[in-house]
Structures are given as structure tokens and as C-alpha cells.
């Protein structure tokens, strides 16, 4: 688990199907997740710097009628994430993670969005495609949960 920052390397595609991006003229995500190989990145497409980003993950595994909840003790932590930068927030194992429902927790602090925690939907084996967290309209992405955190 190592921190990684990438500049201008990811493009938003609203569709899971190949071809032209049909929603190019529609809303644009301020914050979104992109899976690149076994790594998951938070992309800052807003025009504002994010002062702090921290990310961890949890999830569950079901065995027969028993569900076991798991939570990672490790965190990715970043300061001063610039616009158009992406930061690594999780890393998946393409074999072992297939048996788990995984959820990513991302805490951010910025002037634009305040101090909040975003939670992705549970996903078997981890997120597979681009996932909008917050749109430029201020709406949350599909099945994304958010909670304001008092300072």
C-alpha cells in the first residue's frame, strides 16, 4: 500500500459502453473514482484544491447464512490535492477480493465542499468502472452516501 499522485491522466466517461461519451454536454463530476488496473483513484475534477483526503475501506463476506464485516486499519492520506490530480485510494487483489463486497470511505476537507465523508456502494470485488461521487450540480453520485463531519 503506497500513496500515489497522478496528474491529468484520467478522463471521465459516463457510459460503460465503448464509443463516444454521450453525456459530454451533461453534468460533470467534481469528484469521481476511476479504477486503473488493480488500483482505485479519486480524481479531483473541480477547480478547487482539496486540503485533505483520507481513504480506507471495509466490506463484508458472506459464508452460508453468516456475514462477517471487515474494516481496514490502514489509510491513504494526502494533503493539497490540486485540480486535475488523482490520488490512489484503494488497491484490489484480482483474485482474493472477488469473494468480498467492498466499500471505500473517503474523507475530504475543502473550502468548496467542507468536511465530509463519502461512502461508495458495496461492490463485489471492488468498483469496476468510473463512479461519480459528487457532480458539479452538487448532487451525489448513484448510491453514494455522504455525511458532514463537524470540525
What can you tell me about this protein's structure?
The model has no long low-confidence stretch (mean pLDDT 85). 26% of the residues are buried. The protein has strands spanning 5-7, 29-36, 39-44, 50-63, 66-71, 76-81, 85-91, 101-110, 114-119, 123-124, 131-135, 145-148. It contains no helices and twelve strands. The protein has 151 residues and is an all-beta fold. It has one domain (5-148). The two termini are 28 Å apart.
Summary of the model, kept short:
With 151 residues, this protein is mainly β.
How many structural domains in the coordinates?
1
Helical percent range? under 10%
Q: What is the approximate shape?
A: globular
Q: Order of SSEs, N→C?
A: EEEEEEEEEEEE
Biggest sheet descriptor: 7 strands, antiparallel
Q: Given the helix and strand composition, which structural class is it?
A: mainly beta
Strand content: over 45%
| C-alpha termini separation | 28 Å
Radius of gyration based on Cα positions: 15 Å
Amino acid at each position: 500500500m503506497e500513496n500515489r499522485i497522478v496528474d491529468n491522466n484520467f478522463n471521465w466517461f459516463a457510459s460503460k459502453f465503448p464509443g463516444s461519451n454521450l453525456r459530454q454536454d451533461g453534468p460533470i463530476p467534481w469528484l469521481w473514482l476511476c479504477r486503473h488496473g488493480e488500483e482505485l483513484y479519486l480524481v479531483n475534477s473541480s477547480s478547487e484544491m482539496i486540503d485533505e483526503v483520507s481513504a480506507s475501506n471495509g466490506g463484508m463476506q458472506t459464508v452460508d447464512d453468516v456475514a462477517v464485516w471487515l474494516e481496514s486499519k490502514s489509510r491513504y492520506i494526502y494533503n493539497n490535492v490540486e485540480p486535475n490530480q488523482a490520488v490512489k485510494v484503494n488497491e484490489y487483489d484480482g483474485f482474493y477480493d472477488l469473494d468480498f463486497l467492498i466499500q471505500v470511505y473517503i474523507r475530504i476537507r475543502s473550502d468548496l465542499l467542507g468536511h465530509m465523508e463519502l461512502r461508495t456502494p458495496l461492490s463485489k470485488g471492488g468498483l469496476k468502472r468510473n463512479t461519480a461521487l459528487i457532480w458539479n450540480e452538487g448532487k451525489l453520485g448513484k448510491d453514494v452516501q455522504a455525511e458532514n463531519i463537524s470540525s
